[in-house]
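Q: What would this complex look like in 3D?
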Amino acid sequence: MRLTTILVAAAAALNAGGAWAQASQGRELFIRPDKGNCIACHQVPEGSGPAVRSDVGPRLDAARLKGWDRERLRGLLEDPMRANPGTVMPPYGRHRLLESREIERVIDYLHALP
Amino acid sequence: MRFLDRPRAAAVLLALSLPLQAADGAEAVRNDIVSSMRARFPSLAPADYVAGSAAFDPVRQSEAAANRPAPGAAEAIEAGRRLWTTKFANGRSLAGCFPNGGRRIAAAYPQYDRRVKRLVSLETAINQCLKTHGQPLLEAGDPATMGAVLAYLRSLSDGQKIAVRTGSAPAEERFEEGRRIYFARMGQQNYSCASCHVDHAGNYFGDNAIPAPLGSAAAWPFIREGRPVTMQMRIRECLDRMGAAPFPAGSDELAHLEYFLAYLSNGIAIRPNAWRPR
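A: Here is my prediction, written as structure tokens for the whole assembly.
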């Protein structure tokens, strides 16, 4: 019983650590000018990314992203023009700015925003 | 031009193959954009836009004031003056190719030349003069030579109001081509020039307020890190950031874009060689 508890706790910690690592990778992709460079258009909460004055797109936080599940975010990042032909947001997937696995890491980061 | 990768090449080809929209004429296009800017930024006069980002950003305004005159501007202008006045082997000079030695001419460029059926930018006119006199041409993208010459030449028109004309069907077609390229999405980022500079003028891209299209043709060259940057050089930088292969320096496409932007700035006084940040 005691061993089981320890194993469950260890698995949870590993899982949390993995989620943190994935969100951390997503944060880097969100910021890097040669990758997502999302930070050039969107602000994020203090402590979640660099403090910038960007306001081409909306500020992104948990409240703003409510209802944006993985599938919906994936579709947006793949090609935002499908939903909004006039958008200035780059088609990260369609134009191969980000690979599929990188889009997943950005989603991890967005879902971890407070 | 550097090698195009597949997505970039496809995006550029797509942009260049878009059909021409019905042209309303240069003056109607200009009036639309001026009216749009006036409605969105009622406190700004057309001349205010010459400051670029600083038109929207008090922090940048302070930095610009602290860098007036721009570090390196005097040196660039002097280097340009020397190139402008140096005698060729035949005793002529660049200055001799232009009316009044080049004073007060810049406001009318680019202009459509009916004889050669092309737009003539200042870069084109300078190189045509050199060619006529058997001199090596200047590289349109080189700040040390063409940039310096233009820093000097446009300083001779400081305060002159831009007065670019269309006035013929072929000239209107060149303006329309510049407008079409300006509004065409290009490159991996899938932006058009207008996506940022018209739709999001005044918004912050990172920590930089996005300049409006008005006034941009009055501000060049600007001085960045001591070097003159012409409008065509700046457009090429922008295209590169968009993930598009930049049009070659001195190309017709850049001349068309410059013609479009210069026409939008008609009536705004030329203020060259001001400081800009990296």
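A: To summarize the key features: Residues 2-31 of chain A form the longest helix (30 residues). Chain A has three helices and no strands.
Q: Very helpful, thank you.
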